[in-house]
Amino acid sequence: MKMSSLILVVDDNEAGQLLVCTVLQLEGFRVDSAGSSEQVLERLNLRMPDLILMDVQLPGQDGLALTRQLKADPATAAIPIVALTAHAMAGDREQALAAGCAGYISKPIDTRTLGDQIREFLSAQRLEPSVSVE
Questions:
Q1: Does the N terminus or the C terminus of the chain have fewer Cβ atoms within 10 A?
Q2: Residue-wise over 37-52: b if at least 16 C-beta within 10 A, else e?
Q3: Could you give the percent of the chain with pLDDT greater than 90?
Q4: Mapping DSSP to helix (H, G, I), strand (E, B) and coil, where does residue 66 land?
Q5: Helices assigned H by DSSP within the chain
Q6: The domain that contains 99 carries what CATH number?
Q7: Domain extent for 33
Q8: Is residue 64 part of a domain?
């Protein structure tokens, strides 16, 4: 039996983090979570996820700066990172992609489609470097 993909959910809002983690677990994913850039780095020292859902607005170092840092590190560069943000302004998607994100999901999330969106990012990552799912 194939082990399910491990998703690292990065969000400093505990309620939002809990919602995303719960939805993904119900969809059959293994889930880890972090609320800050420092926690992400700690988690990555323990185990590498198959995908990171990265909130753009984090305390201290923001999610896009952390994405650039992870993409610059050979140990973490291959992990697909999907921006997860309430920012849905013109140019936000482009900024996320320019920082190294494989895609962009805007909040509030659609709990009915999140699992499929993550599966799409995981499978698309094998085929092409940059996709976007709304």
A1: N
A2: bebbbebbeeeebbbb
A3: 73
A4: helix
A5: 14-26, 37-46, 63-72, 92-99, 114-127
A6: 3.40.50.2300
A7: 6-125
A8: yes
